[in-house]
């Protein structure tokens, strides 16, 4: 257990939309590496879904849903960390999962410019997860993805099952143009040695100051890409599984180019299990997750994040997938 005088190590998990951050977080929370973490999760979108996709564990998980961690909620981040520091013996480190659209600079800066936070914590590592299949298609127009790579000391080149050896080499080359020094680990579903990622003193302030000389001085003025927006769909009645899955497949095909990310928890008619759907562009996954709990609201919630997605069309199609109840019911 850490002594109070030792600063608590902080690991920041970043990476563009759908790269595999939650997959990595779930491994960190379940694999036996002998450390306990307090976890801070920030998500983009009005309806919280990420927290439902994180494995249930003994760890304390704090959600920050009221905005982007790198902009409006930084004060919240400081407050959460200060709260955690009042009970330092409950955990060995802090993990922060940022949204896919976060600039990691202001998050990292928090650990240097806030005197109270700086005295009690130590930024240990910035780990950036990369989607080997989609990075090259997005990187030139996604400023945030470039920042995430530039700030990383460790890059996890994930989803190597979806690309060829030559494609992996091309992605690595592109990463190296942005960040020549970070260690790059290849993975499938983030299957890396978790213990080797944690508490490793990898963050190097001197290197960051080379990349961004004003890092410690100014307030970072971060601008998000205005074309990337998000909307949510919520429905309290059950959905028809056949109609819903057909519609979703069609939607992903039709709008996948601009659909950066989709996630949903679906309540199907005549089904006692929650169904989880996720897409990154046209790659769609869906599976039963766990039974609905006693008293849990069986509500369908979906979040779409994309470039100029036609909300009305998607919403209309969604509503047509509601299960029709028999008049006798
Ligand atoms: N084929 C394949 N799919 C993967 C791999 N890693 C993650 N996925 C899938 O990719 C999707 C996104 O993974 P997440 O871990 O939720 O990604 P994220 O970075 O947390 O996504 P955000 O919600 O945008 O923050 C999910 O459907 C995962 O099951 C991989 O190595 N190979």
UniProtKB/TrEMBL annotation:
| InterPro entries, sorted | CobW-likC_sf, CobW-like_C, CobW/HypB/UreG_nucleotide-bd, P-loop_NTPase, Zinc-reg_GTPase_activator
Q: Does the keyword Nucleotide-binding apply?
A: yes
Q: Where is the CobW C-terminal domain?
A: 228-322
UniProt keywords (A-Z) are: Chaperone, Hydrolase, Nucleotide-binding
- Gene Ontology molecular functions: hydrolase activity; nucleotide binding
Q: Which SUPFAM superfamilies match?
A: Hypothetical protein YjiA, C-terminal domain, P-loop containing nucleoside triphosphate hydrolases
Pfam families attached to this UniProt entry? cobW (PF02492), CobW_C (PF07683)
Q: Which residues cross the membrane?
A: none
Family named by the database record: Belongs to the SIMIBI class G3E GTPase family. ZNG1 subfamily.
Presence of keyword Oxidoreductase: no
Q: Which organism is it from?
A: Hoeflea marina
Which transformation does this protein catalyse, written as a reaction?
GTP + H2O = GDP + phosphate + H(+)
Superkingdom of the organism of origin: Bacteria
Q: What is this protein called?
A: G3E family GTPase
